[in-house]
Amino acid sequence: MNFCINEFSNSKIREFLQMNLNTNSLSDRREEILVRCKNKNLILYSDNGCTRCKLVFSDSSVKYKRQGEAVLNSKIFLSLLENLKAYKEINFEKLENSLLRVSSKKFECNLIPLVSKLPEEDEFSLQDYEKITLPFDILLAVNTKFKDFYKSFSSTAFQKKSILRSINLRKASASEELQVLLTDSYRILLARFSPESSKSMFELSLQPEILNSIVTLFREQFETKEIDLYVGNEHLVVSTEYLIFKTKLQTGSYPNLIELFDFEESINFSINKNLLISAIERNLLLSPQNTLFTTYKIVENNLILEFRDSAKGSVREELEISKARGGDTQFALNSSLLRQLLKNIGDQEIIFSLTESFKPILLFGREEGKYFKQLILPLKYS
User: Fold this and answer.
1) Among the listed residues 368, 364, 338, the one whose alpha carbon sits nearest the alpha carbon of residue 352
2) Which tens digits make up the pLDDT trace of 100-140?
3) Which pLDDT does position 273 carry in this prediction?
4) All structural domains of the chain with their residue ranges
5) Contact of 355 with 263, CB cutoff 8 Å
6) Do domains 130-257 and 263-376 have the same CATH topology?
7) What is the rounded distance in angstroms from the CA atom of residue 112 to the CA atom of residue 89?
8) CA 59 to CA 298: how far, in whole Å?
9) I need a surface site. Which of 97, 117, 119, 271 has the fewest CB within 10 A?
10) CB atoms near residue 285 (< 10 Å)
11) Which residues form the DNA polymerase III beta sliding clamp C-terminal domain (predicted)?
């Protein structure tokens, strides 16, 4: 096997390898990549038990010299390409002693290929799959808005396998609205869109890492276009001429959390985002581990943050708010979780809407609230 890649193909291969590493945590962690030269094409194939992906180069970005194949460790392969990304050309040659020589200018590295063999390449037949067409910018917006939120998810096995750890996309038959939900059992994110291209009803749940992989792999081709998602047999497939991505969908019944967003508010107030975030950070000074909660009191046109610890002391700060509805009340929140939700909102003016102290609190930006809203569950206080 002998081939040469340029800066463009290097970039695409790195995206492919990063996808493999990002989704390995969802499966058996097979950090293996099949590299094959065949019929004047360079083919990269991965199968980690959760996702299967095939990347094909048949253009001038790869110089094909001799056929052959090797299985490489994706972490080592990615690290190597990252450190050589400034080089215009990188040559790969499988030697007679089975080593894979990677060279560019005066650099040379001899890799020992893995002896394991990946499963046979999937033909990725789309027969019996239902096609769902969505504007790519919807997937991009959801991924951008949700990615910081799901980075904080627990890495426990329960959270990894939980249906509630997935992003749920749902479109009812009688509705023009696409609803997208994500929750960690303490907070819920909701996005609402009205895609003209999607007429049929559907519901699917996929892990955040999968959505991020789709956006990363297909962004260059579909960023200003619509993308076709093929769903069937508990799998999702995205296919183009040179790149095919197949993944398992999350199965199970996703709860109808959308109902929690529909309530008759009794209290509504707004506050500057940066002022509140700064106050929260000062309030957390006595609780670096964020194991306790902060009491939030609304007194006339003021929001009072109070934190007390019998061993460390107390912190109290008063902020001015603009109250649109309701009287005085108080509630308790994990301020660390609230701070992250606030940072996830693009607007400077944040609106809080609630009914009672122990019921979910809705917060959203003045402008962003048309499309994105968030719920946080209050805590009991004494």
Assistant:
1) 364
2) 999 998 899 999 999 877 666 656 678 889 999 999 999 99
3) 97
4) 2-111, 130-257, 263-376
5) yes
6) yes
7) 21
8) 64
9) 97
10) 11
11) 266-379
Do the beta carbons of residue 340 and residue 148 sit within 8 Å? Answer: yes
The CB-side HSE value for 282 (13 A sphere, CA atoms) comes to: 14
For residue 82 the two structure tokens come to 């990252």
Query: Is the backbone of residue 49 left (phi > 0), alpha (psi -120 to 50) or beta?
Result: left
Task: In whole angstroms, give the CA distance from residue 298 to residue 303.
Answer: 5
382 confidence band (pLDDT: 50, 70, 90): very low
**Cα 106 from Cα 99, distance rounded (Å):** 18
Phi, psi values for residue 330, rounded to 5°: -150, 155
Nearest Cα residue to 30 out of 52, 44, 48? 48
- Which three-class secondary structure state does DSSP give residue 333? strand
Q: Look at residue 292 and give its three-state secondary structure.
A: coil
Task: Please give the Cα distance from 216 to 130 (Å, whole number).
Answer: 23
For residue range 340-374, what is the model confidence (pLDDT) as tens digits?
A: 899 989 999 999 999 988 899 999 999 999 999 99
| CATH of the domain spanning 2-111, picked from 1.10.730.10, 3.40.50.1820, 3.10.150.10, 3.40.50.150 | 3.10.150.10
The CATH homologous superfamily to which domain 263-376 belongs is: DNA Polymerase III, subunit A, domain 2 (3.10.150.10)
Tokens matching residue 109: 């590295």
What pLDDT score does 157 carry? 42
- Interior/surface letters 140-153, b for 16+ CB within 10 angstroms, e for the rest: bbbbebbeebbeeb
pTM: 0.86
DSSP string for 272-284: EHHHHHHHHHHHG
Give the type of residue at 142: V
The three-class DSSP label of residue 146 is helix
Q: Return the number of other C-beta atoms located less than 10 Å from residue 238's C-beta.
A: 20
**Residue 301 CB neighbours (<10 A):** 11
Pairwise CA distance, residues 183 & 20, whole Å: 24
Q: Which CATH architecture has domain 130-257?
A: Roll (3.10)
Token pair recorded at residue 80: 């190597």
φ/ψ (deg, to 5) at 46: -135, 150
Residue 163 or 138, more confident: 138
